[in-house]
């Protein structure tokens, strides 16, 4: 089997790095420099026309979109390892959270950060849209916090849905989002951070 993983540190590819580490999958890792536009070379664009990472090439098939990659790896390699549910309602719940993070949560985060954190040029920013994005982002965090009120992990047992969402929470913490109101989320985050795979990955990045 051949797995080639194109990544950049401190990017959405970190989600896939953590998923690969949880699954203990051996792969060839190719680091790209986003500042040098290395995702925009003809070679990279041939594999991912979006010009982005993460990009995973499995036995010659290029896969992009972190949510799709998590679900794909979970389905292929996670079920036997007890890290991804077999097809059925539990699988549906895992997919629900993974897609929610990439679509609903990220949409709100981008509205907040792009308008207020210097992601977009000044003339494209709108402070009120940024405030609305921030409120919606916190609305999402509240949903996640409430979902974790009666359980240790999203599906009760640890799964790649936790891996995926925990990595997104790391990104928000890095952006200094205030997590103080979210007791359940913080408790869950500590448990996720104490996973051997997370510790190994942090040490590698050290
Ligand atoms: N929706 C995509 C987002 C991927 C993405 O935005 N990647 C950024 C880094 S965080 C990137 O590669 N940017 C390079 C560029 O746009 O040139 C996913 O979840 O995989």
Weakly predicted, low-confidence segments: none
Question: How many DSSP helices?
Answer: 8
Overall helicity: 55-70%
- Terminal Cα span: 29 Å
Largest sheet: 4 strands, mixed
CATH class of the largest domain: Mainly Alpha
Second CATH tier, the architecture of the largest domain = Up-down Bundle
Strand order of the largest sheet: 2-1-3-4
Give the overall average pLDDT: 97
Summarize it.
The protein has 206 residues and is an alpha+beta fold.
Q: Could you explain the architecture of this structure?
A:
- The protein has helices at 13-23, 42-47, 66-78, 89-116, 127-147, 160-174, 183-193, 196-205, and strands at 3-7, 28-31, 55-58, 61-64.
- It has 206 residues and is of the alpha+beta class.
- The chain has 2 domains: 3-82, Glutaredoxin, CATH 3.40.30.10; 89-201, Glutathione S-transferase Yfyf (Class Pi), Chain A, domain 2 (Up-down Bundle), CATH 1.20.1050.10.
- A 4-stranded mixed beta sheet has the order 2-1-3-4, with helices on one face.
- Helix 3 packs antiparallel against helix 4 (89-116), helix 4 packs parallel to helix 6 (160-174) and helix 5 (127-147) packs across helix 7.
- The model has no long low-confidence stretch (mean pLDDT 97).
- Glutathione binds next to loops.
- Glutathione (GSH) binds at residues 11-12, 34, 39-40, 51-54, 65-66, 102.
């Amino acid at each position: 089997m051949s797995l080639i993983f194109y990544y950049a540190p401190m990017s959405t590819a970190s989600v896939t790095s953590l998923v690969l580490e949880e699954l203990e999958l051996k792969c060839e890792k190719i680091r790209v420099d986003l500042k040098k536009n290395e995702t925009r070379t003809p070679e990279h664009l041939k594999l991912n026309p979006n010009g982005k990472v993460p990009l995973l090439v499995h036995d010659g098939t290029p896969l992009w979109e972190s949510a799709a990659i998590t679900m794909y790896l979970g389905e292929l390699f996670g079920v036997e390892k007890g890290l991804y549910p077999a097809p059925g309602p539990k699988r549906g719940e895992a997919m629900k959270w993974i897609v929610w993070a990439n679509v609903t949560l990220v949409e709100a985060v981008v509205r907040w950060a792009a308008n207020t954190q210097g992601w977009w040029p000044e003339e494209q920013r709108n402070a009120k849209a940024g405030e609305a994005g921030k409120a919606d982002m916190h609305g999402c965090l509240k949903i996640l916090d409430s979902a974790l009120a009666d359980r240790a992990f999203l599906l009760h047992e640890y799964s790649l849905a936790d891996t995926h969402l925990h990595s997104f929470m790391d990104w928000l913490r890095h952006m200094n989002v205030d997590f103080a109101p979210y007791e359940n989320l913080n408790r869950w985050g500590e448990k996720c951070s104490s996973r051997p795979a997370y510790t190994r990955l942090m040490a590698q990045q050290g």
